[in-house]
Write a structure and sequence with these properties.
- This protein folds into three domains: 128 residues, Udp-n-acetylmuramoylalanyl-d-glutamate--2,6- Diaminopimelate Ligase, Chain: A, domain 1 (3-Layer(aba) Sandwich), CATH 3.40.1390; 161 residues, Reverse transcriptase/Diguanylate cyclase domain (Alpha-Beta Plaits, 2-Layer Sandwich), CATH 3.30.70.270; 84 residues, PucR C-terminal helix-turn-helix domain (Arc Repressor Mutant, subunit A, Orthogonal Bundle).
- Helices cover 52% and strands 15% of the residues.
- The protein contains 16 helices and twelve strands.
- α7 packs antiparallel against α8, α13 packs across α15 and α14 crosses α15.
């Protein structure tokens, strides 16, 4: 269960914080926090975020009269306003609107620093996400591993420097929001997709519709190629079926290393939840990058919309039932290697060259420019992790 406004108050995370309006909204869940000293970009605040602010300018009712209704419509958890610096008390129009909309308003003391808020709330939310994989679920995962080792130990831990074995955890994000048949179809496609890259692929269903995969890949390069391609696959399945999954992974280096690999895979899953990704994959050694991606997205949530080249490609694909965006995604993920890209897309090299020329024309892109390639790569990651 997610952390709520009621938990924040009841557990006295910040002893002097007070709920001053919107009491009927105390069950609102807090998935992340947003600190905005000056309320200059409320449209960037995301669903499930608790907004912390100094309240600068809130005395100007004409300017901020739509603030609370706007935050409520966006599905924001609530707003915490600090008094004592810029305002002595929270304006009555804010409190009245919040009560009418059941939108929680918290009053922060002057002594509480935003640095302390960030440190404390990050720790609390991170702790809550880790409860999703309970001891019972992890114990069943361990039993599955022991069974796999009893039957396939020679294949799983073969003495071969090229082969690499990985633990992968699959966790549905929005299970109640899609039909059961859609989930079965989605899971079947994910299984087939990952299996096509591996020498050995074993899967077990865990409680709460979670799954664990134990897979042996021909090389580390094959694993990473599969992982990035799977991230794209999850995006396409989300668009087609409305299903969203998180995938966390880590390498298994020895029989005794299973517990550590399992913990690392759950840490990777928790990272996706922490940054509030819509879906996506995260290997343990990519956690720092994925966290950075989430931090940038919180500050620049319109990055996908602002990338005109990507918007032109997406619109062209929708209008013409083409897949130029996917071609560019695969090309960039393969470090612009023509041979690898053509092989992965099952295209002749000449056909790929023509496609890239068309992509450059539609998006007005210079793919020979490093910063253009980097910008398109990062923006497409934003699209795949955060956009429906």
């Amino acid at each position: 269960m997610a952390f709520t406004i009621q938990d924040l108050i009841g557990q006295k995370i910040f002893p002097d914080i007070k709920l001053v309006a919107g009491r009927r909204g105390i069950s609102n869940e807090i998935f992340w926090i947003n600190i905005m000293e000056i309320l200059d970009s409320p449209k960037s605040i995301q669903v499930g975020e608790l907004l912390f602010t100094t309240g600068f300018g809130l005395q100007q009712e004409e300017t901020y009269r739509d603030l609370i209704p706007q935050l409520s419509r966006r599905g924001v958890s609530g707003i915490a306003i600090q008094t004592g610096y810029y305002i002595d008390s929270i304006p009555s129009y804010i409190l009245e609107q919040a009560d009418a909309l059941d939108f929680p308003v918290l009053q922060l003391p002057k002594t509480l620093t935003f640095s302390e808020i960030l440190r404390t709330m990050t720790r609390v939310i991170d702790s809550e996400t880790q409860k999703n994989w309970s001891r019972g679920v992890l114990k069943e995962a361990a039993s599955f591993f022991e069974k796999c080792m009893a039957e396939h130990e020679a294949e799983i831990l073969r003495d071969n420097e090229e082969l690499c074995t990985h633990i992968m955890l699959l966790d549905p994000v929005n299970y109640v929001n899609a039909e059961e048949d859609s989930w079965r179809k989605c899971l079947g496609q994910i299984n087939s997709f990952a299996q096509s890259y591996s020498n050995l692929f074993l899967v077990h269903e865990l409680p709460q519709h979670k799954h664990i995969f134990l897979a042996v890949f021909p090389s580390s390069e094959d694993f990473h190629s599969m992982l990035y391609s799977l991230n794209t696959k999850l995006t396409l399945l989300s668009e087609e079926l409305g299903t969203n999954y998180y995938v966390g992974a880590d390498r298994l280096r020895s029989r005794d290393g299973f517990v550590l690999a399992l913990k690392h895979a759950t840490d990777a899953l928790n990272t996706l939840q922490l940054i509030r990704a819509r879906r996506g994959v995260c290997a343990y050694n990519h956690i720092s990058f994925i966290k950075m991606l989430g931090q940038i997205h919180r500050k620049e949530s319109s990055a996908v919309l602002d990338n005109q080249a990507l918007q032109m490609l997406l619109n062209y694909d929708r209008a013409n039932n083409s897949n130029y965006t996917h071609t560019l995604r695969v090309y960039l993920s393969n470090s612009c290697n023509m041979t690898k890209t053509a092989r992965q897309l099952f295209l002749h090299r000449h056909t790929l060259i023509k496609r890239l020329e068309k992509i450059s024309s539609v998006g007005n892109l210079d793919l020979n420019d490093y910063y253009t390639r980097l910008y398109m790569s990062v923006t497409m990651l934003f699209h795949d992790y955060f956009v429906y």
